[in-house]
Amino acid sequence: MKQQTEPDVVWNMGESYKKELADIHAPAELITLTKERAAAEEKKQKRHKRYRSVYLPAAVAAAVLLLVFCFPMWNRISEKKGQESVQPYLGSTEEMPKSAGETEKSEEVMLLQKKTVLPMGFLKEDAWTEELEGTQVKFVQEGDTCIAAYAEEDGYMVVSMKTKDLDGFREAVRRLLQNGGNIYEDRK
Amino acid sequence: MGALELKTEEIIDKYADMVYRIAINQTGSREEAQDIFQEVFLRLVRCRDRISGEEHVKAWLIRVTINCAKKYQASFWKKKVSLEETAKEGPDKKAEHFYEAVENADSSVLQAVKELPEKYGSVVYLFYYEEMSIAQIGRILGEKEATVKSRLYRARSILKIRLKGELP
Fold this sequence. Notes:
A: rod-shaped; B: mainly alpha; Rna Polymerase Sigma Factor, Chain: A
């Protein structure tokens, strides 16, 4: 046998390798089976795409709408709660309600409002004026509610309390004036 | 580069032999090659949107087939089966397989390439069969050109030793 040179070996190797590989073909059954599986997979992919393009955006839109409608509602509820929670309490600490929403202690809750003008209720005939702690205080009773108002530098302070006890209300207003309008003074 | 216009069936018809040959070249087993063949085309269906143009699909199929073969070779199932088979066969059978392999090793270039480490096998296939340049092979395999050259050189050296004097 003739001794082969290195380039011969490499050349022959490449050619033989190519020839041997070229004789290999994928079996027809394998191709058919793969086509069937690929078709089934394509159908599955289409369903998945449809889900992603139709159902998913719909679900997201529904979630967004829910948020859009619920958020302001929730906000209003929180605001209402917030308003209730800042109502000042001037009663004794033993009787202090746990929350402003408690009805049984609602008589003890004093509401202070700053007004730029005197409310019309004080112009009624049954309204009267008293001097408490050197300040002219206007009083009026409307049903179960006692309302008082006194002038301040930049308007009027209107104090209201749901009570029929006028003396108790007067005393509460006096204490308020003693403290210079600071409702938290008593709690220190 | 445009979108892939060929239907999946057309792609399978066109590249079936190529994928099957790479799988055989990498694994040396027809059964494994058939599993890899199906896996590759199913992956093609799933990733079709990311493939653009015919040149891309060919490169993609080559790369995925090589990767699938690599994974298959390293898979737990394959290792488990091999160990179980070896244990069942016993020492006599093992010796028989060994002599068969030695005999077959010299019978063809393809057999010799199959017995090369997997990383050399893919380079030999792409260089000799697909007639790709070193740069193209590097791009497909995600390797540097120097790495491809070195693998090709080593693969040739091993094959030269095995095949010297045996070829016509």
